[in-house]
Amino acid sequence: AAVCSETTTRAMVDAAKPGAKKRGRPRNPNKPRPRKPGPPPEALRVRHNPIFDEMRQQMDAVVAAIHPKRGGGGAAQTSSKPSETLADRVEKVVAITMTEKEKAAIEKERREAAMYWPVSLNPKLKPKGCVVSDDRMSFTSTKGYKTCVASHGVKTAGAYYYEITIIALGETGHARVGWKSKSGERNAPVGFDKFGYGYKDIGGEKVHQGVTSAYGEPFKEGDVIGCYIYVDADVPVKARGTKVTTVNAASEPTENASFIAFARNGAFQGKAFESLTSGDGAYFPAGSLYTMPDVEPAQLKFNFGPTWAFPPDVDAVGFVAPRPMSHFAPPRPPPQEVKTEPEDAKLVDTERQDAKPAISSDEPKPTIALEGFPTSSKPSATSL
């Protein structure tokens, strides 16, 4: 009895183990089993019309866009992604129903519009974690230091100006504004390396190559910072695909009249950086934001002119009157004239047709006389 109880207990323990095989009666291979239903005969098969199938797919897409399928509900179904609006769904439906030719035409219009887009923020150069607005004039950051630059930079000698409004910083946010080249780091603030010149909100300090020093007044949320740059003709300008070979390249700076200055709510703080050098021959407007993760986002708004919230008072500091950065916006081509056919063109064509002499069928047609053949088209008795 003890041996039997031990064997039974061991069998129960083995059955309770995960992945243990189920003990039972073996399967009878000779037992008849129901056959799976095969395809219906050819006579009962439904013949689909491709035109009706396409219409049915379009109708299903419209219904799915207006009445999306809902999940089981509950907190587990919630997502951090914003919910789609009805306009977004309709746009998707229209994109589905468009032909390839219509899609190509829309893509062509977008490319042509991008060629003549005014000076704005460049969404292609924005780092991950920040969002550029639809008008490309402001950007929002939610984590760490993020830097966004403009689409056009200063490549020629002269004075240029733009404004940045500190829209929001929150409890943990900080901002830097200034100028940088495309070679600068996007996941670091302006002035982190040698390719950027920045103005900090903390203490009003200036920063270049990661070195900060005293400069002007600190700024806060709601202030408007004006960024002024004067580029001397001696600063090397690098063309695309070439190298800077002059002595005042980025590695060997020399003295020149170029400088950068900043203004807080219209009041210039003096010259921040002098004897500028450019690693790639262009200075781009740039702004940086810093925030702690999972807190209120920070936001900057750019203004590239030609109208200003605080017009720069250059006469008070003796600076050259600047041009707005919007000066670099590509000019749009003049509208093409549509050639219309004159109203009297059809009348002229009809008059020309009326002026042509009409050939009557009763007039005798010219004939050719040949020896041995009758000249008349009708057969004669002699010819027969």
Helix and strand sequence: HHHHEEEEEEEEEEEEEHEH
**Global mean pLDDT:** 75
The counted number of beta strands is: 14
Anisotropy-based shape: elongated
User: Which consecutive residue ranges, at least 5 long each, have pLDDT under 50?
Assistant: 71-79, 239-252, 380-384
Number of helices, where a helix is a run of at least 4 consecutive DSSP H or I residues: 6
What portion of residues is helical? 10-25%
Q: Strand content of the residues, in percent?
A: 15-25%
The largest sheet, given as strand count, sense and whether it forms a barrel, is: 8 strands, mixed
Overall structural class, as computed from helix and strand content, comes to: alpha+beta
Report the radius of gyration as a whole number of Å.
40 Å
Euclidean distance between termini CA atoms? 137 Å
Question: How is the quaternary structure best described?
Answer: single chain
If you had to describe this structure to a student in words, what would you say it looks like?
The longest helix has 17 residues, at 50-66. Strands 1, 2, 4, 9, 10, 11, 13 and 14 form an eight-stranded mixed sheet that branches. The N and C termini lie far apart (137 Å). The protein has 384 residues and is of the alpha+beta class. The model is unreliable at 71-79, 239-252 and 380-384 (pLDDT under 50). The chain has helices spanning 2-16, 50-66, 86-97, 100-115, 314-317, 345-355; strands at residues 130-132, 138-141, 144-149, 158-168, 174-180, 196-200, 206-208, 211-213, 224-231, 259-264, 267-274, 284-291, 298-303, 323-324.
